[in-house]
Amino acid sequence: MFKKTLIAALGLGLALGAAAADIPEGTQLVTSAADIKTVDGGSKVFTGKVSLRALSAELPGMPVSTAYVIFEAGARSYWHTHPTGQVLIIAEGEGRSGVYGEKVSVLKKGDVVVCPKGVKHFHGAAPDQRMVQMTITGSDAQGKNVEWLEPVTDEQYNNIAR
Q1: Can you give the residue ranges of every domain in the chain?
Q2: 6-157: what CATH class?
Q3: What's the whole-model pTM score?
Q4: What's the Cα-to-Cα distance from 110 to each of 41, 57, 93, 95, 124, rounded to whole Å?
Q5: What is the mean pLDDT of residues 2-12?
Q6: CB-facing half-sphere around the CA of 61: CA atoms within 13 A
Q7: Average pLDDT rounded to a whole number, residues 63-90
Q8: How far is CA 34 from CA 6, 48, 95, 134, 150, in A?
Q9: Mean pLDDT calculated for residue range 107-122
Q10: E-assigned strands of the chain?
Q11: Is residue 11's pLDDT more than 60?
Q12: Cα(39)–Cα(6) distance, rounded to whole angstroms?
């Protein structure tokens, strides 16, 4: 049985990562990069073209999932919150991240965004270049890791802190 991660929360219904029962006790699971699939993020919670590469699912005692999220130029998530928080590490390109009602931050390769639980925010690529982020997303006791809200408007997306 596979655990559902961020992808499932996006409504894609994909099972990713090994369940704890699939990892022999006292060892670790190594997944070859060639075996990690990239899937389309769809349009239910993203504006523009977004791809997802799930890296790891939750394990007992480690209630986090990880993924690469690839935003093409101008693409972004909808507004959302996390019940236990999220960390983003910008791996490539330039991006944007905003907290509802505040100016939007410009993100560069190597930047880290720590979003505490319950903070309404979005993230995505710059208007003219793609951005790749690694996400580390915590889950609550029921396995929920995100609550999706409304789309981010162009006005909100372009409200850059200067």
Answers
A1: 6-157
A2: mainly beta
A3: 0.85
A4: 23, 23, 10, 11, 15
A5: 35
A6: 1
A7: 97
A8: 20, 26, 26, 18, 35
A9: 98
A10: 39-40, 46-47, 50-56, 64-71, 76-77, 80-81, 86-99, 104-108, 112-115, 121-125, 131-138, 147-148
A11: no
A12: 12
